[in-house]
Write a sequence for this structure.
């Protein structure tokens, strides 16, 4: 199962969640301050973040982790030549849950 980016986000109403995931900020902060280890690579033609996450983490749903660590936003397809950060999954899990 993928790491849930909304696991620690506040729930408002009846089982609905609003707002931005706190996990994205935690990943970005962890990358910036060095507490989340990562590999950096250059995206090749035809690569997508979900398939990279599937290879790196065993679950394509964790593409959001790579996007957050790389400052990409929500897009799963980014142009070739983009530098991406692939965080250590266990480091992310300790921040996100």
């Amino acid at each position: 199962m993928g790491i849930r980016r909304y696991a620690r986000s506040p729930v408002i109403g009846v089982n609905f969640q609003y707002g931005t995931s706190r996990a994205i900020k935690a990943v970005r902060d962890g990358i910036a301050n060095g507490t989340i280890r990562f590999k950096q690579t250059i995206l090749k033609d035809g690569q997508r973040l979900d398939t990279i996450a599937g290879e790196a983490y065993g679950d394509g749903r964790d593409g959001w982790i790579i996007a957050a660590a790389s400052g990409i936003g929500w897009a799963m397809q980014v142009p070739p030549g983009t530098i991406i950060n692939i965080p250590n999954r266990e480091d992310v899990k300790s921040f996100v849950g």
Notes: The chain has one domain: 11-96. The mean pLDDT is 84. The beta strands are 11-12, 16-17, 38-42, 83-87.
